[in-house]
Design a protein that fits this description.
This protein has helices spanning 11-14, 31-41, 54-70, 192-201, 213-216, 220-224, 251-260, 265-271, 341-360, 381-388, 425-435, 456-460, 482-497, 512-529, 544-548, and strands at 5-7, 28-30, 73-74, 82-92, 97-102, 105-108, 115-118, 125-135, 141-142, 147-148, 159-163, 206-210, 229-233, 245-249, 280-306, 311-321, 326-327, 337-338, 366-373, 397-403, 414-417, 439-442, 466-469. It is of the alpha/beta class. It has two domains: 5-86 and 299-554, 3-Layer(aba) Sandwich (Aminopeptidase); 89-294, Glucose Oxidase, domain 1, CATH 3.50.30.30.
């Protein structure tokens, strides 16, 4: 591969004069450097980079060595390079009992076929004894949208049954609900994580989400693929979820459950799209007795910084996750390591290039930090652990810019925006993309909620403005082949290699497009680091009110 780069000479011209305090330097992002990093991290030496393994030990050592060589400073909470992230790892065994019970008649359930379950409690056995099932629609409690699906329903000791996504997803044109939750663009209330959290906040003993492929964005095969395994950060006893079990019920099993209870699931789906929806007691109990193995796995985030020269307490954070899926069954080529060459070794490589560019330039006014998160693939856990115990306070964190999967099919005429309408950083994206001669294209399937499925979301929940670069969010308009070629790349990657062993280094990758995207994020962060501007959230964002509460600290 020849040495290729994209120059950022237009930075100063692109930024508003009122925001610019330090002339922006000329930098270059090199494809060869990206390739070298990905080849290394995706090699068998790192064993798929699973948390708590030898692969992690080697990965952490490699990351720290690279950062030291570039002259960055450690930014861990104790002055070191790492932040400890203890993880609870659980796995369900074979159920002794698993059934619905209505008026004394038990309907046995097949784990993995009718229902998928996992546990996030550190107990040897998950037990639910004939707990009443209550259908709560989409399970949304959103006062800012004038919406409450619970209507005072007591869920303590009960099983909450949810629909996936949010009320707008299936709304027909002209329905009153349409637009309340962003149209087809999923809000946070549509995420399965929100539903489990809400059930726990209300004291439920279990929570089940009715699966449908369109609403979830993936089939039942994806739902059951973890095989009863789950991870969480280690929590204090009073913070452990109330849910003994959480999971999904297949569409077929759910239809039968409702029919046996004298209810029409199809009709209730429509009713749940109205504000006057009220929870429905299904008159059915849920019983489960399942052995659970559990352990604490020690893992780590890696944190580094380049201190700001004028306002070092104001911080721009770049992030990418270092972890992948570790060892699995051999694929057709005999590969056993699911090494995440693109997801997210390429993002890590991008952070190294951005760090190198900042180090080659005069010091910026603000601190620039680099976070290499653990356990993203286990539920954004490394970034969540950081967000709960941040090194840099959220109110003084200017922005978090995340790289998670970049397209490897060559230069593009556009850049795909994830989370349109959330924050002012998307305006910065458009401005700097224009300086590259590119346009901005909104993600093609906003109903899948990609905005809520990467590490930047952990900081967004604390009000930090965020921006995500994710190559699978839509088809890029490639210079060679246009949208059709861009869609083919997305389909090939997501259909064959996403989370699989074939997400491996490939010498045929064309990294020119990744160079464009990394350079674009460098431009945005460099602008922020050399200015006094504070990006924010747009009206209607779920996170605006959180950020507004700390506005006085940024004056």
């Amino acid at each position: 591969m020849s040495l290729r780069f994209v120059s950022a000479v237009l930075l100063a011209a692109a930024a508003p004069a009122s925001a610019q305090t330090t002339p922006a330097p000329t930098v270059a992002i090199y494809a060869d450097n990206l390739a070298d990093t990905v080849r290394t991290l995706a090699s068998d030496q790192f064993q798929g980079r699973a948390p708590g393994t030898v692969g992690e030990e080697r990965t952490i050592g490699y990351l720290i060595g690279r950062l030291q060589a570039m002259g960055l400073e450690p930014a861990g909470p104790d002055g070191g390079w790492t932040q400890a992230v203890p993880l609870l790892h659980t796995r369900l065994g074979t159920p002794a009992t698993l059934a619905f019970d209505r008026k004394g008649a038990a309907t046995p359930l097949a784990l993995g076929t009718d229902i998928y379950l996992s546990s996030l409690q550190p107990k040897d056995r998950a037990t639910v004894e004939n707990a009443p099932l209550v259908f709560v629609g989409y399970g949304v409690s959103a006062s800012e949208r004038g919406w409450d699906d619970f209507k005072g329903q007591d869920l303590k000791g009960k099983v909450a049954v949810f629909l996936v996504n949010d009320p707008d997803f299936a709304a027909a044109k002209g329905e009153p609900v349409a637009g309340t939750f962003g149209g087809r663009t999923m809000t946070y209330y549509g995420r399965w994580t929100y539903k489990y959290e809400e059930a726990s906040r209300r004291g439920a003993i279990a929570a089940l989400i009715v699966h449908d492929t369109d609403g979830a964005g993936y089939g039942w095969n994806v739902v059951k693929s973890p095989g009863g395994e789950n991870y969480d950060i280690v929590r204090a006893p009073d913070q452990v979820t109330s849910l003994a079990l959480q999971g999904w019920i297949s569409g077929e099993a759910a239809t039968k459950l409702f029919a046996d209870a004298g209810q029409d699931l199809a009709r209730l789906r429509v009713a749940a799209r109205r504000k006057d929806f009220k929870p429905v007691d299904l008159g059915t109990g849920f019983t489960a007795a399942i052995p659970v193995t559990h352990e604490v796995v020690q893992s780590q985030n890696v944190l580094a910084k380049i201190p700001g020269a004028k306002r070092p307490d104001e911080v721009v954070i770049y992030g990418a996750h270092w972890d992948a899926y570790g060892e699995g069954a051999p694929d057709e080529q005999g590969r056993i390591y699911r090494a995440g060459a693109n997801d997210d070794a390429l993002g890590v490589a991008g952070l190294f290039e951005i760090a190198r560019a900042f180090k080659a330039a005069p010091p910026s006014d603000r601190t620039v930090a680099f976070a290499f998160w653990t356990a993203e693939e286990r539920g954004l856990l490394g970034s969540e652990a950081y967000a709960q115990n941040p090194v840099f306070p959220a109110e003084k964190t200017v922005a978090n810019l995340g790289l998670d999967i970049l397209q490897t099919a060559g230069r593009a005429k556009d850049v795909v925006l994830v989370g349109q309408g959330q924050g002012s950083l998307e305006d910065d994206l458009a401005r700097h993309a224009a300086a590259q001669g590119r346009t901005v294209t909104p993600e093609s399937l906003p109903e899948r909620g990609l905005f809520y499925r990467a590490d930047h979301f952990s900081l967004a929940k604390r009000g930090v403005p965020v921006l995500l670069m994710m190559g699978i969010a839509g088809a890029s308009d490639l210079v060679q082949g246009g949208k059709e070629a861009g869609q083919k790349w997305v389909d090939d990657y997501t259909g064959k290699c996403y989370h699989q062993a074939c997400d491996a280094w490939d010498a045929t990758w064309n990294l020119d497009g990744a160079v464009q995207d990394i350079d674009l994020f460098y431009r945005i962060g460099n602008d922020l680091a050399r200015s006094a501007q504070w990006p924010g959230w747009k009206d209607g964002s779920e996170f605006k009110a959180i950020r507004d509460k700390s506005a006085a600290s940024r004056k």
